[in-house]
């Protein structure tokens, strides 16, 4: 942990209050953990879930895990499957439902991320009231309430990033306070801290580089700052240079390891003719967005508030920014020794909060759950900044005026967050079924495990494949050229274990018939077998003579 002069612990009352705050989130997570993958952003959730389903089966390892939705070969990996491995191991050992294990694992990782941030606040001697405020902000956040029970990798990367930050801050403050090599008298402890920092940083980068990369940027800037500050004496400068080289080497190692994984993942994708569009070189615009997109105010509002128009939720980013500026201004004026570490954490939190959306703009705009990667640090900045301002105001004026203001502000934000959650998230988390689930269960009950599935009108979503438990091919375009090129892909994915093929088509309207598109090829003879809402299921007989 970050060095702390006093060993005072949180009071019993504060500890109980914080625990009580998370009772409702935990109950909510438990009560919705058995929900099928039919809620929000099913595209990404099902993509993660289907990768877990086939992991460690039939020779599938972490290095060639499958997402069998674009035909053979089935392996088209993205991030390193850290979360997927954890979920698969727990599910296999316990025999519990895969989706439930995935959701609950994510919930535990969310709580561990919060605890890590609480350790940071406690270690820098933030007043208890602000630690309670941080807990309240997270416990009422619609982002962490809802996405804390999803089947996604985001919270895994967030935990590794927070842990890496915790150990970096510990090493950094030890260096600054003693002006000597961090290893100091106990080289084993020093090496162990650096090892843990390296492991967590590398795992964070491999699991989700977009979450952890801002931390590497912060470490680089911070080490340059330390070198500049310590240039006053040759002895101190050598310490700073040595520290900078160590952290630069660790960051380079984590980045290089991630780059090696990306190259490996791309090499596997290149084996699949349908996966060219998801090669890393073709995702630049998807990741970063265009300049014209970045110049649209409505998109920035969407990234930080969830809506493209001015709304009351704008108070959250405005408060984080205003308190960040205010705390830095007061530190420059007052130079309060007591508040310096809080100011540093406020700056760290703000950098982590703003860097992700600034760099990976389009990802944050398209995926609302991406906010889970940076909002926790925004809350961290908000309460650390408040602690700085409180200390500075009290030193000059006395009294608790700012503390009262902070309580009112955080209470208002918490009520607003809960209201947003009730309006936009609560209903979808209690949904038990939908048309996609019904049509998938029909396919599952009327086919064999070796049978294949083709989907049309769902882009390359994994949802129908995961819910039906069938591997197959997602036809992304209905053009004649696309249908013709799919014929060879369909033949490749059918083997001796395949007795039939099901095709699920999502039409633009419930009564619209699209049967004229089929048969997909001379190899399959298809006929409508079932319809649910906008979904039509065709059962296709394999023409063995064309094989």
How would you describe this protein?
With 547 residues, the chain is an alpha/beta fold. It has four domains: 1-152, no CATH class; 163-279, no CATH class; 283-398, no CATH class; 435-546. The chain has helices spanning 12-21, 23-31, 42-53, 82-94, 98-123, 128-139, 142-147, 154-178, 187-207, 209-229, 234-269, 284-288, 291-294, 297-305, 315-334, 340-359, 361-366, 375-397, 401-424, 426-429, 435-445, 463-468, 480-493; strands at 452-456, 471-475, 500-506, 524-532, 535-542. It has a five-stranded mixed sheet with strand order 2-1-3-5-4. The longest helix has 36 residues, at 234-269. It is globular.
Instruction: Tally the structural domains.
Output: 4
Strands of the largest sheet, in order across it? 2-1-3-5-4
Shape: globular
| Element string (H = helix, E = strand) | HHHHHHHHHHHHHHHHHHHHHEHEHEEE
Number of helices: 23
Largest sheet: 5 strands, mixed
Derived structural class: alpha/beta
Strand coverage percent: 5-15%
Mean pLDDT: 90
Instruction: Return residue spans where pLDDT drops below 50 for at least 5 consecutive residues.
Output: none
From the N-terminal CA to the C-terminal CA, the straight-line distance is: 64 Å
Q: Approximately how much helix is present in the residues?
A: 55-70%
Radius of gyration: 26 Å
């Amino acid at each position: 942990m970050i060095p702390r002069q006093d060993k005072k612990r949180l009071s019993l009352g504060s500890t109980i209050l914080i625990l009580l705050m998370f009772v409702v989130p935990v109950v909510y997570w438990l009560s919705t953990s058995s929900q099928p993958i039919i809620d929000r952003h099913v595209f990404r959730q099902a993509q993660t879930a289907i990768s877990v389903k086939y992991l460690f089966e039939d020779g599938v390892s972490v290095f060639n895990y499958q997402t069998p939705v674009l035909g053979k070969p089935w392996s088209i990996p993205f991030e390193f499957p850290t979360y997927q491995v954890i979920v698969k191991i727990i599910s296999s050992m316990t025999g519990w439902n895969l989706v439930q294990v995935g959701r609950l694992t994510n919930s535990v990782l969310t709580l561990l991320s919060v605890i890590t941030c609480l350790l940071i606040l406690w270690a820098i001697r933030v007043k208890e009231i602000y630690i309670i405020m941080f807990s309240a902000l997270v416990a009422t956040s619609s982002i962490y309430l809802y996405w804390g029970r999803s089947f996604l990798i985001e919270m895994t990367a967030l935990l590794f990033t927070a842990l890496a930050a915790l150990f970096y801050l510990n090493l950094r403050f030890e260096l600054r306070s003693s002006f000597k090599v961090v290893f100091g008298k106990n080289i084993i402890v020093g090496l162990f801290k650096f090892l843990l920092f390296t492991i967590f940083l590398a795992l964070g980068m491999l699991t989700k580089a977009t979450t952890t990369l801002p931390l590497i940027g912060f470490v680089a800037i911070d080490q340059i700052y330390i070198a500049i500050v310590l240039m006053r004496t040759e002895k101190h400068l050598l310490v700073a240079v040595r520290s900078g080289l160590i952290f630069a080497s660790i960051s380079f190692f984590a980045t290089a390891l991630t780059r090696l994984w990306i190259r490996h993942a791309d090499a596997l994708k290149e084996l699949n003719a349908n996966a060219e569009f998801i090669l890393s070189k073709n995702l630049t615009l998807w990741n970063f967005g265009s300049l014209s997109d970045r110049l649209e105010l409505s998109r920035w509002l969407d990234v930080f508030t969830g809506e493209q128009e001015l709304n009351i939720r704008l108070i959250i980013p405005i408060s984080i920014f205003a308190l960040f500026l205010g705390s830095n201004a007061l530190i420059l004026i007052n130079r309060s020794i007591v508040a310096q570490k809080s100011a540093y954490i406020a700056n760290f939190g703000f950098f982590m909060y703003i860097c992700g959306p600034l760099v990976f703009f389009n990802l944050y705009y398209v995926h609302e759950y991406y906010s889970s990667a940076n909002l926790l640090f925004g809350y961290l900045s908000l309460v650390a900044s408040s602690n700085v301002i409180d200390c500075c105001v009290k030193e000059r004026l006395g009294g608790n005026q700012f503390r009262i203001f902070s309580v009112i502000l955080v209470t208002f934000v918490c009520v607003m967050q809960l209201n947003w959650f009730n309006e936009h998230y609560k209903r979808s988390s209690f949904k038990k079924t939908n048309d996609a689930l019904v049509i998938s269960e029909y396919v599952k009950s009327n086919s064999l495990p070796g049978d294949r599935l083709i989907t049309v009108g769902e882009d390359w979503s994994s949802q129908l494949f995961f819910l039906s438990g069938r591997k197959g091919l997602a036809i992304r375009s209905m053009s004649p050229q696309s249908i013709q090129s799919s014929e060879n892909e369909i033949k490749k994915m059918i083997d001796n274990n395949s007795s039939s093929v099901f095709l699920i088509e999502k039409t633009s309207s419930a009564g619209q018939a699209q049967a004229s598109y089929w048969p997909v090829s001379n190899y399959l003879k298809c006929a409508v077998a079932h319809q649910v809402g906008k979904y039509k299921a065709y059962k296709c007989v394999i023409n063995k003579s064309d094989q």
